[in-house]
Design goal:
four-stranded antiparallel β-sheet, about 120 residues, seven-stranded mixed β-sheet, 11 strands, mainly beta
Length: about 120
């Protein structure tokens, strides 16, 4: 089982990015998946989750209306489209194989992460 994130980078305030997560070793559509982020020196937080086959989606209050989670069964990918990114916000975003919802658990499986820096 492997999760590999990509798409991070430096973006100006108000800008957009799309993060991607390539899943291998399992069929992503059969599992609940999430995006988790962590700021430097702070604990991780659940950003968004999508249930198996996309039946349910949930967002953290801080990103609702600006971020969209989606998955593509054809290429076993998970995405996070981010719009109107807040200034001075630096996070490492992780794709996670975990139970549906924003709550994190010790046995969640994460990828290696991709950094997003919002700065002018």
């Amino acid at each position: 089982v492997q999760l590999v994130e990509s798409g991070g980078g430096l973006v100006p305030p108000g800008g957009s990015l799309r993060l991607s997560c390539a899943a291998s070793g399992f069929m992503l559509s059969a599992y609940d998946m999430s995006w988790v982020r962590q700021a430097p020196g702070k604990g991780p937080e659940g950003v968004s989750a999508i249930s198996a086959a996309g039946a349910g989606i949930v967002y953290a209050d801080s990103v609702r209306g600006r971020f969209t989670i989606s998955s593509a069964n054809s290429n076993n990918m998970l995405y996070l489209q981010m719009h109107n990114l807040k200034p001075e916000a630096t996070y490492v975003y992780f794709c996670a194989l975990k139970a549906y919802g924003l709550r994190l658990a010790e046995d969640d499986f994460w990828g290696q992460g991709t950094q997003v820096t919002v700065s002018s």
